[in-house]
Amino acid sequence: MGHLDGKSAIVTGAGRGIGKAVAKLLAAEGASVIVSDIGAGLAGEGQDTSIAQQVVNEIEAAGGTAIANTDSITDYEAVQAMVQQAIDNFGKLDIVVNVAGILRDRMIFNMSEEEWDAVIDVHLKGTFNTCKWACVHFRERREGGRIINFSSSSAWGAAGQPNYAAAKYGILGLTATLANSMNRYGGVTANAILPYAATRMIDSTPRAQAIKEETGKLPSELAEEDENDPGNPANVAPFVAYLCTDAAANINGHFFSVRGYEVAIHSSWELADVYKADRRWTPQELARFIPEFSGDHLVPPVQGEADKLSRPKSVTQQLQEAGGWEKLSDEIELWTRDLYYDAKQ
After folding, report:
1. Which residues are catalytic?
2. N or C end of the chain: smaller count of CB under 10 Å?
3. Can you tell me the distance from the alpha carbon of 167 to that of 122, in angstroms, rounded to the nearest whole number?
4. Does residue 111 lie within any of the structural domains?
5. Which pLDDT score, from 0 to 100, does residue 260 have?
6. Taking a C-beta distance cutoff of 8 angstroms, is the pair 88, 51 a contact?
């Protein structure tokens, strides 16, 4: 028996990369899946309806149940119909995983209104559309549900991605709101994933092009050919599947980084320093106290590495020097920022 037997899911962006890996694993765990993908190019151009159907064929060949949907998630009424498609075919909807996305990268001073709108429409409005209509169903049923939204570390400030970063930060806010508002309806949960995987989005970077010149293949091609490559998109899918299970019913409103064989829990938004006066502040006082006592915390964003070809450090690499790793088994270790949890006691 699978961990998701009897469940039904919608996975957007399920025709390629991470979305495809998620859809296939949910189906392998017993869920019936709507494979949602318009089959567009990386910038959102064009449409290939065969992309979603190919994934459905793979799922069915493996003994699973899936149906393709090739409507755009930016279409409010079409997404309502997609949710109804899941209900009509599977009897209900339990899970929504929002992976779909496009890129229109450009520095803010070069970005057009159309480039801004296109990315916001797919990422933020598309996520709103699926969440809105799923939540209508979840509220009516009052038997719970799972929402897993995909954000990105680009939300922390990717210089050439103002549209993408804004959309991905907005998805975090939407996820937190859903977690706070929907849990009362039978235990609906909402969480966000900030993934890293070698997908076609990575293929668009200068570093990826350099790898292609060196190897003859793009990073996504290399990763999909090698099951042991940490960049393989399939590495992200198991944690998504776990969040969809009944075992994750108490996990709500959290943000997780998933990269290779690592899962990291973000602390979300927490107070760092608090200054309190007994009357209105003056700008002069703030200019005196904040740099002196909080200046070390308010450092400018780190600029990109000079070596654009270097692979970003993994979470584990960054923490190796910090110490404090606890061995949970022969193959698994845990690092915990004790001060964060101590402060919540």
Report:
1. 164
2. C
3. 9
4. yes
5. 86
6. no
Give the chain's length. 345
Interval 251-309: pLDDT, tens: 999 999 988 888 888 877 777 678 888 888 888 988 888 888 777 666 655 544 333 33
- The answer as to whether 45 is a domain residue is yes
- 273 contact partners, CB below 8 Å, separation of at least 6: 293, 294, 297
pLDDT over threshold 90, residue 124: yes
Residue pair 126/73 in contact by the 8 Å Cβ criterion: yes
Euclidean distance between CA atoms 28 and 91, whole angstroms: 19
**pLDDT at 307 (0 to 100):** 34
75's tokens: 């279409």
Q: b vs e for 275-314, b when ≥16 Cβ sit within 10 Å of the residue's Cβ?
A: eeeeeeeeeeeeeeeeeeeeeeeeeeeeeeeeeeeeeeeb
What are the residues whose beta carbons fall under 8 Å from the beta carbon of 338, sequence distance 6 or more? 324
CATH code at position 162: 3.40.50.720
pLDDT at 108: 94
Q: Which two tokens stand for residue 116?
A: 């801004």
- Reported as half-sphere exposure (CB side, CA atoms, 13 A), residue 231 has a value of 19
